Amino acid sequence: MPSPRHHAYWISSANIPTGPTITPIRYTSEFIVATYYFSDGRDLDTRTKLVDPDVGDYLGWARASSVGAGLIQWGGDNTGTGLESVAIDVNLFKANYPAVNSITVDFRCFWFGTVGYNPVRLDVVLYKGGTLRKVGYGWDNPSAAQSKNISSASKNITTRSTSSGYNGQGLARLRYNVYSGAGWFDTNLY
Predict the structure, then answer these.
(1) DSSP 3-state assignment of 43?
(2) What is the per-residue pLDDT for 2?
(3) Which of 8, 33, 142, 188 is the least buried, fewest Cβ under 10 Å from its Cβ?
């Protein structure tokens, strides 16, 4: 296991918090795909940002579609129902930020169109190996050697905005050690 690096906190399996809003993670990966699912309402706009280290702006409608030369990529603007997704290249992160061991990703969203009544769900798939490919508004990796599915708790999103500058309502945060594979989702930060 690599030694702790200076920039971000060191996460190990021993210091993952517990509680009803925490989803623990213990899985090393090369790619992380986070997908926002919405089954009603119309035009959920997502905002995803690597906040620690602070890399670029939020991804999503009227914002960036990629930051860090492909480090994080957005799958596009779904103006109906279904899903929107982002992909994080963990190997590219480690190559570009070799002194940083952990990331914190902020997941937010809001309704541009009709507010939905059903909760918005955020699912994450961690992939070992293979190559990501964009499929519709999402990503998959059919050539992955292994993968692990992780679901965070769902949350009702009640905010609506037509402003491109709005960052949205908090859905979850992911804290993840890119070397040890230990981390967690927290939906009680907002």
Answers:
(1) coil
(2) 41
(3) 142
Residue 82 in this model has a pLDDT that exceeds 90: yes
Contacts of 163 (CB under 8 A, 6+ apart): none
User: Does 169 reside within a domain?
Assistant: yes
Per-residue pLDDT at 16 = 86
Would you say residue 119 lies in a domain? Answer: yes
- Beta strand spans in 30-81 (E): 31-38, 44-52, 54-59, 66-67, 72-74
Backbone phi and psi for residue 14, each to the nearest 5 degrees, phi listed first: -70, -25
- Residue 144 included in any domain: yes
> Which residue range forms the structural domain that includes residue 134?
23-186
- Rounded CA-CA distance 11/102 in Å is 7
The reply to whether 62 falls in a domain is: yes
Please write the tens of the pLDDT for every residue from 5-46: 434 445 666 678 888 888 899 999 999 999 999 999 999 999
Please state, in angstroms and rounded to a whole number, the distance separating the CA atoms of residues 97 and 132.
21
Q: Mean of the pLDDT values across residues 66-93?
A: 96
Peptide bond into 20 cis (omega under 30): no
Average pLDDT in the chain: 91
The answer to whether 41 touches 114, Cβ cutoff 8 Å, is yes
Residue 156 scores a pLDDT above 50: yes
Q: How many domains does the chain have?
A: 1
Count of C-beta atoms within a 10 Å radius of residue 91: 12
